[in-house]
Amino acid sequence: MTAALVGGPEGSLGHAAALVAGAVDRAAARSSGPLSGVDPEVLRARIDALDPCPDAGLGLTTAIADLEREVLDHGVWPADPRCAAHLHCAPLVSAAAAELAVGATNQSMDSFDQAPAATFAEDALVRWLGGLLGLPASSSGVLTSGGTASNLLGLLLAREHAAPCVADGLPAEARDWRIVTSEAAHFSVRRAAMLLGLGERAVIAVGTDARGAMDVSALQSALRAERVIAVVATAGTTDHGAIDPLAAVASAAREAGAWLHVDAAVGGAFALSDALAPRLDGIAAADSVTVDFHKLWWQPIGTSALVVRDGAALGAIAHHSDYLNRSGDEADGVLNLATRSLDTSRRFDALKVLVSLRATGRRELAAMVERCVALASATGAAVAAHPRLELVAPVSTVTVLFRVDGDDATQVAVQRVLLASGSAVIGRTRIDGRETLKLTLLNPHATERDLAALLDLVASAAVVPA
User: Fold this and answer.
1) pLDDT per residue over 30-40, tens digit each?
2) Which of 2, 94, 140, 456 is found 20 to 30 A from 426 (Cα to Cα)?
3) pTM exceeds cut of 0.90
């Protein structure tokens, strides 16, 4: 038996890591744009031709070379300035390198005896994040796979805060429970309501202002009219990048006795910056907060956090098993993170975050966030000044909403033509019923000249479809 295991006497992780790193570096060097533009059907056929598990192993060198040629060469490169469609970042090199240690050591974050130091490392990271957001010393949390999972956990805690549902299921009055958020909130709020047995109709979406931020007067009206168990504010909406008026929302939620969850998957990184942190004023009043490290913290997917104001609230989801996280462990001072998480086996993603944050430092990370915000502002101004482009909404954070000359079909055609050719990856959404193009700027190394060239590329691609 020749297959090597990490940590075993026959293992050679350094050699294998060098092969992988070389493949990535070569693929990146060969790229001439954000993606190759190879026809999808051709790409599918080439990948389908690769046997996922041949009877006889090919060896690592051949296996990596095949995937380098057929997969890595045809991926998307978020570090290219023309890749600006989604909240999809190029990771820090330090974080990507630390991923090797995450996979190689394979700590399982459900019980202390599978990940002793790792358990304390994750716990320290989420407590630090709570402090950064202004939450009290009682705050705690857990890492999740993404903002959708974090929002689900936050709203599960809100539901349990309204009435514990573990033993007998939802109480009869739950049919009248409502969750209020803005019409610009992430779709995961509705999905969470459905998964939690409340139904999507339990979500009341109130209106927004011109920037896409929640209308507080509409929120107050909903709070007066309904039995609201939770208010979900957003710090960085997906389309507008808007930050709801968190202090006013928090005040209204507190007066109504509702749990306040802040989806700061995007805007949570503003807490790193002395200049941008005031835009999160009011977030310290939240009962739970979502922060995605794989957005404006430049971490590999997927690393999100759910931080709660009072760590005791996580007890609502605690379940014990005799073979894993025994009921007496807490009394003995043993910390098993399975009691906080909706997952059991879970990666030690805190490692890559801690390595890269410590390597980079808060000042540099803050400068990177500030640079992206400044780039978005400058790009919005360039759109407004461009003879063939229309700025659809004011720029709030890192997204720019705009249209090119032409009807809705033209907007669709532009986005598709640029993607198919490999020239650019830009976003497309609907704002006020109109097809709208979108740039999401998460590359602090991009320049104003890069973005001006991208806008010209978009304008030149505007053709009326036959």
Assistant:
1) 999 999 999 99
2) 94
3) yes
